[in-house]
Design goal:
This protein has strands at residues 4-7, 10-13, 18-24, 33-39, 46-52, 58-60, 68-73, 78-83, 92-98, 101-102, 106-111. It has 112 residues and is mostly beta strands. Strand 7 and strand 8 (78-83) form a beta hairpin.
Length: 112
């Protein structure tokens, strides 16, 4: 069974940047979509960004467009989320997802 392991979260001031990583325990198929979601306290989990593994096609939630960038490294079975111009509203646990599999999450806290 594939495992997803996220890392890279932390505490950052508003306007700062973080880069999240998610490594899969086996190669990702070209048709798979890798996704990042986030869940803030008291809120439902929400979509952040997705990348189609084979084509590299990306899509973003409106709330993060032009600030976040999703990318992948096929050789490392890894997907990344570069987060710039962070806002307190971005504070959440960030999860990596492929199909029905989820990572354990990594906490991102943005202070004002």
């Amino acid at each position: 069974q594939v495992q997803l392991v996220e890392s890279g979260g932390g505490l950052v001031q508003a306007g700062g940047s973080l880069r999240l990583s998610c490594v899969a325990s086996r190669p990702i198929l070209s048709y798979n979509a890798m996704r990042w979601f986030r869940q803030a306290p008291g809120k439902e989990r929400e979509f952040v960004a997705t990348i189609i593994w084979g084509s590299g096609t990306t899509n973003y939630a409106d709330s993060v467009k032009d600030r976040f960038t999703i990318s992948r490294d096929n050789a490392k079975n890894a997907v990344y989320l570069q987060m710039n111009s962070l806002k307190p509203a971005d504070t959440a646990v960030y999860y990596c997802n492929v199909d029905s599999l989820w990572g354990q999450g990594t906490q991102v806290t943005v202070s004002s």
